[in-house]
Amino acid sequence: MTSEELEARIVRYGDLIPCKTAFIDAHTPGSDQKENFTIIGGGVSESPDQHVHIKDTPGFNIGAAGQPPRCRNSLHSHTTAEVFFVLKGRWRFFWGRWGKAGEVVLEEGDIINIPTGIFRGFENIGLDYGMIMAVLGGDDAGGGVTWAPQVIQDAAEHGLILGDNSKLYDSKKGQKLPEGISPMPILSDEKLAKMPEPPAIDVIPRHVARYLDLMGLAGKSPIKVIGEDAMLPDKPGFEMDFITRGSLHDEVLTFKDSIVLMPMRGHWLLKWENYTVTLNPGDTCILPAGFSHKLEPSMAGEASMYRVKSNDDPAGPTWTKN
User: Fold this and answer.
1) Looking at residue 313, what is its pLDDT?
2) Which of 116, 247, 257, 293 has its CA 20 to 30 A from that of 182?
């Protein structure tokens, strides 16, 4: 593989193309300034305007959300895993029918594996534009989003209607539901009553890892952050490692499945054959199965990276009460 061919597998942070109409709350005050990025795979966007950088999926999807201060993503639930790490800023994640069952504040580098099957939302509570990177379970992440009833109702008051085909229609643009398409039904009271409302004390220990803790635990091997026997034990359809300067030893790395490299801090050299490219914080690089390579920081100072690996696990539920 040439450097040009591998560069086509890298989505640079500075080249990310946002969509401001990706979801049903795109016109709702308080949520109308958020930007959605679909990096690898189709993601969960409900808008035909969403740009997809790399369409092929390795068993999971990669996306991102960018929001100015006090902008929030409305309450919704997923049937597959949704893992975030904070690239920039300070974020509050909250969950429950009304977003009041529990919450946690994450700083840069912190990671959360949000439990499936519960309503969740998130808000940039920092002072500047913030960015969170996301990993979604499964090749097909579309159709797995269910909005809290009040979100659908608020959206309709501001001109957006979600069809039962998971597509958005904007009455402000003169759009109407096509023939044969009905509005997306809201969950019944019976189904709402069955949705978990776990308190923070049940969620945080098994679903949140702090960047400072990961750096403090960093040793001669990558830290398993998400996986069956990882720091945050789960089988969401992929695994995630945390890599630092000291966890790599100039060895050649080869994996039987695809991997995705997502630098958090520092600049990293990706080397193979006679080629070298540099990966920077916010970049996303997908490597094919069996691709032999080396990784090393390009300069002194803090260096860290999340590595996502495909596996044979189904992209199933992640929420179980301790």
Assistant:
1) 75
2) 116
pTM (2 d.p.): 0.92
Domain of residue 244, CATH code: 2.60.120.10
Please say whether the beta carbons of 278 and 305 come within 8 A.
no
3 in a domain, yes or no?
no
Q: Are residues 166 and 242 in the same domain?
A: no
Same domain, 144 and 34: yes
Residue by residue, DSSP assigns 271-311 as EETTEEEEE-TT-EEEE-TT--BEEEESSSS--EEEEEEE-
Contact present, 16 and 64 (Cβ < 8 Å): yes
Tokens 């450097």 sit on residue: 3
* CA angle centred on 236, ends 231 and 240, rounded to 5°: 45
Distance between CA atoms of 166 and 148, rounded to whole angstroms? 15
Give the integer Cα–Cα distance in Å for 181 and 190. 25
Q: Give the model confidence (pLDDT) of 196-255 as tens digits.
A: 999 999 999 999 999 999 999 988 899 999 998 999 998 888 999 999 998 988 889 999
Selection from 82, 86, 66 nearest residue 118 by Cα: 82
Q: 125 near 69, Cβ under 8 Å?
A: yes
pLDDT band at 75 (very low <50, low <70, confident <90, very high): very high
Are residues 220 and 189 part of one domain? no
Strand partners, 131: 66, 88
Residue 319 lies in a domain: no
Parent domain of 95: 11-208
Distances (CA, A) of 175 to 4, 147, 168: 42, 21, 9
Task: Tell me if 315 is assigned to some domain.
Answer: no
- Tens of pLDDT, residues 247-281: 988 889 999 999 999 999 999 999 999 899 999 99
Q: Which long-range contacts (CB under 8 A, 24 or more apart) does 193-199 make?
A: 195/77, 195/97, 195/117, 195/118, 195/119, 196/115, 196/117, 196/118, 196/319, 196/321, 197/96, 197/97, 197/101, 197/118, 198/95, 198/101, 198/102, 198/115, 198/118, 198/319, 198/321, 199/101, 199/102
Looking at 208, 240, 266, the residue that finishes a domain is 208
